[in-house]
Amino acid sequence: MTRAAIVTGGASGIGAAIARHLAADGALVAIFDLDGTAAEAAATAIEEAGGKAIGLPVDVTARAAIDAGVEQVRSRLGRPSILVNSAGATIAGPFLDIAAETWDRALAVNLTGTFDCCQAVLPDMIEERWGRIVNISSSSVHSGSRGLAAYVAAKSGVVGLTKVLALEFAPYGITVNTIPPGFIDTPMLRKTLEQGVFDLDQQIANTPVGRIGRPEDVAATCAFLVNEEAGYITGQIIGVNGGRNT
Ligand code: NAI
Q: How many independent structural domains does the chain possess?
């Protein structure tokens, strides 16, 4: 059966790789991204490769925009039954310098955005009696990460939210899991490296498999979790981190 999938943050990095992989597996993919032009470009690239995708300008910190985006998905692709929350932003800074607005922004993008997208799409999944949600958190929830207090707090919230949704919606055939990726080569990671939050060589040395991760590493795991066969896996934290966290 052809399913409609929403991938937030699907215009770049991990989300873009997930959107490509799900489309290649036959899903009808809606890319929600703050950068609407990039979302459309990513959708066009998927269509050129033979898949079906649309790109929409959706800011996950704005509930009305999410609801309008989901409505478009219903009318253009059908009832969404797969949701991947990959939109996120690393907001770095020493703890004592974090302003209230910075803290709020980190939570809005990384945690409340995930909450709102789940709440907007779950009624469709309940009606369908089938659904798959994958929330992209961060390996920093295992280990903490200096300079990223607001981000790590928000991503830790995503892990907690995932566990509760898994319990509440399992009776409807809906699974909810989280992938905390570690050290994946994306524009976000490159920006963090430029800001000096991490040192590339040191991070590779700390990674047992001895390389930086690829967005496709996360996409392959996500594609498995949204499969029919993964129906007995819910509420889980599936790390994709080259062995950095075990
Ligand atoms: P990226 O920066 O390449 O992609 C993030 C995408 O999210 C961008 O297209 C951006 O426009 C979009 N976005 C940002 N704010 C948004 C908003 N308010 N509404 C809608 N879209 C928004 O980053 P990357 O690395 O692909 O990150 C994807 C997810 O993976 C994020 O949630 C990030 O926190 C998480 N992650 C990434 C790691 C890495 O090593 N790259 C490690 C741990 C977690």
A: 1
